From TrEMBL:
<dbReference type="InterPro" id="IPR036291">
    <property type="entry name" value="NAD(P)-bd_dom_sf"/>
</dbReference>
<dbReference type="GO" id="GO:0016614">
    <property type="term" value="F:oxidoreductase activity, acting on CH-OH group of donors"/>
</dbReference>
<feature type="compositionally biased region" description="Basic and acidic residues">
    <location>
        <begin position="78"/>
        <end position="87"/>
    </location>
</feature>
<feature type="signal peptide">
    <location>
        <begin position="1"/>
        <end position="31"/>
    </location>
</feature>
<keyword id="KW-0560">Oxidoreductase</keyword>
<comment type="similarity">
    <text>Belongs to the short-chain dehydrogenases/reductases (SDR) family.</text>
</comment>
<protein>
    <recommendedName>
        <fullName>Uncharacterized oxidoreductase YghA</fullName>
    </recommendedName>
</protein>
<dbReference type="InterPro" id="IPR002347">
    <property type="entry name" value="SDR_fam"/>
</dbReference>
<feature type="compositionally biased region" description="Low complexity">
    <location>
        <begin position="29"/>
        <end position="49"/>
    </location>
</feature>
<feature type="region of interest" description="Disordered">
    <location>
        <begin position="29"/>
        <end position="93"/>
    </location>
</feature>
<keyword id="KW-0732">Signal</keyword>
<dbReference type="InterPro" id="IPR020904">
    <property type="entry name" value="Sc_DH/Rdtase_CS"/>
</dbReference>
<dbReference type="InterPro" id="IPR006311">
    <property type="entry name" value="TAT_signal"/>
</dbReference>
<dbReference type="Pfam" id="PF13561">
    <property type="entry name" value="adh_short_C2"/>
</dbReference>
Amino acid sequence: MADDDFFKARRKVMQGATAALAAAVTTPALAQPQSQPGTAAGAASAKSGVQDPRPLYPHPPFPVQSQPWPGLAARMTPRPDHGERSYRGSGRLTGRRALITGGDSGIGRATAIAFAREGADVAINYLPQEEEDAREVVELIRAAGRKAVALPGDIRDEAFCKSLVDKAVSALGGLDILVNNAGRQQSHDSILDITTDAFDWTLKTNVYALFWITKAAIPHMPAGAAIINTASVNAYDPSENLLDYACTKAAIANFTKGLAKQMAKRGIRVNAVAPGPFWTPLQVSGGQTEANLKEFGAKTPMGRPGQPAEIATVYVQLASSESSYVTGQVYGASGGSGQP
Ligand code: NAD
Ligand code: MG
């Protein structure tokens, strides 16, 4: 069997297996487009595969909810859609080895699923409290026929960051893609409420850890490798209740552009993604005020938050060798408002 045929056949088998597993870990109502057959949008969709993005996913108001930090996707209402039932790979990352921080839930989880279905082996980092979410991701990666490596631990610790990279490299046999995605966001109405400890916690998670992990990873990365950081629309237009968080996201966007200039000499591309409002545990575990959460995403032109499944493809695009001239960029996905 030719290589191409082999991969096509394997993808077909894997898509069946992943669909079965995904059905067990998602709420079917969320994973399906909400447009009705017979409506203009439904008809267009049936004929050409084109989908109207407006009715695809839940709109505010959302039910009042709160979880202890760091939160679990499994306990959110509605449950986020990470692409468990929808993402279809096409071999864009065949044979790549990827490390994704915060890969248990939200944007990192959607990216892990997409990478695996594109043919990559994936190591995920997360906190020990998130084991329940992480287990599901590990199963989904394996169901895609790829290697999954679970590496729990707290990235605020420099020694742990170094060992995380070492363990990922040895378990995967190398490292081609690093996704710095883990993040800490806690809402405070006033600067007067932000303690030094809280400020330090946010900066350690979002900036120091990204610096430590990236520094440890680069010596292992070949020419052609890709680093993808997760910034935010807050980098450019800071929310008044997220002072400490927003400034870390500005730092990440800046770090990305500077590092890209250095890494071009090694053939390593460095980009960032800047999400707008996405429906993830970060937001329901102290990341937003109750009022903001109820109306989450309402202020965007799309009138709703994004679901993690709607941004994973940006990470795939930036990781793929097809983007060989794309480096030092910050890509947005924000429902129509915000920069870059
Ligand atoms: P999420 O809660 O699903 O993911 C964040 C992850 O960060 C957690 O799952 C956790 O594993 C990890 N994390 C936090 N502190 C850690 C620590 N000390 N050690 C190890 N891991 C730690 O939420 P998400 O929204 O998918 O967040 C992913 C990234 O997206 C974050 O960088 C966040 O700032 C960014 N972002 C999110 C939004 C949004 O609206 N959800 C918008 C812009 C940017
Ligand atoms: Mg999580």
